[in-house]
Amino acid sequence: MKIIVDAFGGDNSPDSVIKGAYLAAKDNIDIILTGKQSIIESKMKEFGLEPNPHITIVNAEDKILGEDEPVKAIKEKKDSSMVVGLRLLADGVGDAFVSAGNTGAVLAGATLIIRRLKGIKRAALATVIPTAKGPAILTDCGSNVVCKPEYYPQFAMMGSAYLEAVIGEKNPKVGLINIGTEETKGTETVLEAYALLKENSNINFGGNCEARDVLKGDFKVMVADGFTGNVILKVIEGVAKEFTGSMKEMFFKNIATKVSALIMKKGLKEFKKKYDYKEHGGAPILGLNKPVIKAHGSSNDYAIYKAIIQADTFAKQGVIEKIQKNI
Amino acid sequence: MKIIVDAFGGDNSPDSVIKGAYLAAKDNIDIILTGKQSIIESKMKEFGLEPNPHITIVNAEDKILGEDEPVKAIKEKKDSSMVVGLRLLADGVGDAFVSAGNTGAVLAGATLIIRRLKGIKRAALATVIPTAKGPAILTDCGSNVVCKPEYYPQFAMMGSAYLEAVIGEKNPKVGLINIGTEETKGTETVLEAYALLKENSNINFGGNCEARDVLKGDFKVMVADGFTGNVILKVIEGVAKEFTGSMKEMFFKNIATKVSALIMKKGLKEFKKKYDYKEHGGAPILGLNKPVIKAHGSSNDYAIYKAIIQADTFAKQGVIEKIQKNI
After folding, report:
1. pLDDT tens digit string along B20-38?
2. pTM for the whole thing?
3. Which of these three, A245, A261, A278, is where a domain ends?
4. For a FRET experiment, which of A37, A242, A250, B195 has its CA 20 to 30 Å from that of A256?
5. C-beta atoms of B240 and A239 within 8 A
6. Are A253 and B246 a contacting pair at CB < 8 A?
């Protein structure tokens, strides 16, 4: 497998992307870095990184910025690290693509250049969520802010295929994100989606999932429109940040609490790791002809490394073939 | 001020409601308990509670259940503790109403019996949220699952009036819950709501509030449609539960960590209190002719006590007059 990585996407790029690629190269993963070759090479020198047989650079003079209008950027910045990378994927030069850049642009680029699988109505951004009972999938997380009822069963099917293949969860229970557990709750779209999910035999539908149960882990694949999914993801992120901040404050109050913090060190580390997005790689875009992973915009080198590993598994496990079979 | 309290609403009713009313009576608040008198009196005996001059009972033979269809229940169960309580409020026998019962029924009953203020398009459920910078308001939290753009400025105005009057926050900054900070983000409804909020001079609009910033506290009044607001509220609740659960596990691992837990006791207590919904009373329903508070369904006696105190302040501070002035 060969993973194409956008060296100029993300808040900490290209530094974290180059370092993350080197971490993955240690695991014998072949990588193509796209982006301005002279900068990448001078950064490698700066970081004391020797040329590596697992890492190839493909030059791209331009880059897409966070503030760029997605579709316009994809159409006009043809020599950007993102567009060049996506073209390499489309042409079969690599097997998967990773970018921590402009989310809208990755989504637009993936749909325009890689294209959707035949029969898939909308590609969906899926996020792996750490729950009390292991990883779960939430989709859509922002690709489609407004959804028609018929999108939901496809989101559920794609999320299930991904979870089965990449995480190894068999026949995962699907939940529809809603404001109550009763079948009669929600907007008209959600009510219609419920009916369609219920009659779909390709998935293991378990009913409505109240937002308070997202981290509980009973539902392994949770489906929502992109607005709601994105909101859920960001609330989790925000609350986690507030909580760990409060905990830190609590532990640094005085000498006694600092000693406690030392005793708790291992537990605290596990706690932090459990809810750290960096541990869980990026968000796969489901419904495309090829594997694309959107890494978190503020990814550090370790998060990029994890996203590359995830892209490698995504490509190896035949997720796309499974989705295709179920359409 | 006299607060009417639905003795047969909520998972722990009537026990927690009776006990909560007695706590409030200690603060010299006059209370009318509605519900089956014989049961209330026998419960009082069971709890060793003497008749109290601050507490009156108004008999209601029936009660609305959690699974009842809201509008139907309000129309048909005329002698339920909830409907009797709302009628007492409408008739001016009391100054505010508190119920921990069926949310849909409280909303339907409030709209049908208390009625909306003239000019208010929709009543909205508002929740006080503990943030890093003090209490903030999120509204709507589930009253209107689908919203028209013109509802949002009213939600913002009502939330601002409540926060100013009850919490004492002057000219609170209003944020529109969205999936990005840019003005161009969101659904069509949200985009139109943005424009209306921006041009409204009655409020202090500060732009989009990303869901990750809800607990940060920069925005004091956050507006959303009822579906999104409800989802946010429940995610916060769920994540808080997961986190405190993980922390507990961490602290009970071995003797050393248990000693740490003892040292941290005070800090942990403060931490728990900060994010405990029971501390923050119930959710005011804004836009009605009289003050109505929906307490959390799983309220214990302390939470009921807090909701009664809140109802008392709601009635005393002239929130409704302020809203009326701004319509």
Report:
1. 999 999 999 999 999 999 9
2. 0.91
3. A278
4. A242
5. yes
6. no
